[in-house]
Write a structure and sequence with these properties.
transmembrane helix; about 450 residues; 3-stranded antiparallel sheet; mainly alpha
């Protein structure tokens, strides 16, 4: 990757795209520090800290949610809208037809996704404001800007407009990065949020090595940072190895004579990745299992002292095995569900047969579809086991570096960082390859 970056900076066009991408990402990070006027950020942060689901959202936004800044919602509404539209594309024939109409169809689906993003941003902003307001997190706005409880509805409208605008501006920045920069802008924004959260934690740990008088020096925090970095490198290397692993199914195409020309006769492969569904099963599983925490934590003031919070929540209590078991079952269920959406053996078998191809040793048609389905189910099983291990092993491994590092990288955060980094490297390589082709043609 470093060699690819070095070669990319030697090309003027690619270097310009990288600088545009970095500039837009800097604009996004600045927006994460712009406070909402009158907001009690300390109270806002305390509410987020006491809820597992909000902590996950806060990590993705790079700490913007806990600070209640302009980009507090981050890219979350757009991600949720994209997931909803992607799932509806499978079930609604009109959306399915649009997805198969090429560039024009994708443009229409993108426009529908933007409208859904606006709706979800408004709903999410209203939910955050009402629930946080019930715990006194926005009381400062009432007294500082709008002069009393009687104007509470104005406060809600004010904050809904601000947070919805922040979410839409974040989406716009992501789309501009995709259009003018390198890679997928939405993925890079999520990547930046996760990395910045981890970076701030490491920076605070290094600063804590110095006393208030900046005289004495404590080496223990530095040692913990070094141990954390070594463990992180090992975990990332293992995840990259599994992420790049794939099963290649050979396909042979028969020779066909059309007119005076002969077509076909070549061999190719169908690659099926172990982690083909990526981080989506984990996102769905954590979202569902964190739903009780989210609802009860926001609406029930005594939730922290409840039996569920003390014994089951987070999998750390005496009944934590129930939490772990349910989470693993959800990961398995969503892994197979998402694999069915991404990889359709019947369609692939039909396409192979129509183009005069066959899998060696397997008859075309239904036997090929059954063979592909069997292979896909086996690989999905190993992928689900891998995701289940990733859900618990990193936090356990990071605990050896210190309790402060357990939640530096969330489970989904690790997979997102790896997948985005690999995708960014592929984008740079494709840009360099296109440049080489252009130079060859000239």
């Amino acid at each position: 990757m470093f060699e690819t970056l070095k070669n990319a900076f030697k090309v003027k066009e690619i270097r310009k795209k990288i600088f545009i991408m970095l500039l837009l990402l800097l604009v996004y990070r600045l927006g994460c520090y712009i406070p909402v006027p009158g907001l009690d950020t300390a109270q806002f942060g305390s509410v987020v800290e006491g809820n597992n689901f909000l902590n996950l959202m806060n990590a993705v936004t790079g700490g913007a949610l806990a600070s209640g800044t302009l980009f507090a919602l981050g890219i979350g509404p757009y991600i949720n809208a994209s997931i909803i539209i992607q799932l509806l594309t499978v079930g609604i024939p009109a959306l399915e037809r649009l997805s198969k109409q090429g560039e024009e169809g994708r443009r229409k689906i993108a426009q529908i996704t933007r409208y859904v993003t606006i709706a979800l941003a408004i709903v999410q902003a209203v939910g955050v404001i009402i629930n946080f307001g019930s715990q006194g997190a926005i009381s400062g706005i009432i007294t500082n800007l709008f002069g009393g409880e009687g104007n509470l509805w104005i406060v809600y409208i004010y904050m809904v407009i601000l947070y919805t605008a922040g979410a839409m501006l974040t989406m716009w920045i992501g789309e501009r990065i995709t259009e003018y920069g390198v890679g997928n802008g939405i993925s890079l924004i999520i990547f930046l949020g996760i990395i910045s959260t981890a970076g701030l934690t490491l920076l605070d740990k290094i600063i804590s090595a110095f006393t208030a008088e900046n005289v004495a020096f404590d080496f223990d925090p530095i040692l913990e940072v070094i141990v954390f970095c070594v463990i992180a490198v090992i975990i990332f290397a293992l995840i990259v190895t599994v992420d790049l692993a794939e099963r290649r199914i050979p396909v042979q195409y028969a020779k066909q004579v059309k007119g005076r020309k002969m077509y076909g006769g070549q061999s190719t492969v169908i690659p099926i990745k172990i982690s083909g569904s990526g981080v989506m099963p984990l996102i769905f599983a954590f979202a569902i299992i964190s739903l009780p925490d989210l609802i009860m934590g926001l609406f029930w003031s005594g939730y922290a002292d409840s039996w569920y919070a003390q014994n089951i929540s987070n999998g750390s209590g005496p009944w934590g095995w129930v939490y772990i078991l349910v989470l693993c079952l959800l990961i398995f269920a969503f892994s197979f569900f998402y694999a069915q959406i991404q990889f359709n053996p019947d369609d692939i078998s039909k396409s192979i047969q129509q183009n005069g191809g066959f899998i060696p040793g397997i008859r075309p048609g239904k036997p090929t579809a059954q063979y592909l389905r069997k292979i896909s189910n086996r690989i999905t099983l190993f992928g689900a086991i891998f995701l289940s291990l990733v859900a618990f092993v990193p936090s356990f491994a990071f605990s050896f570096a210190g309790t402060e590092f357990v939640n530096v990288f969330s489970t989904t955060g690790i997979l997102i960082v790896v997948s985005v980094a690999l995708e960014f490297d592929k984008q740079l390589q494709s840009q360099l390859m296109m440049k080489n082709y252009k130079g060859f043609l000239k």
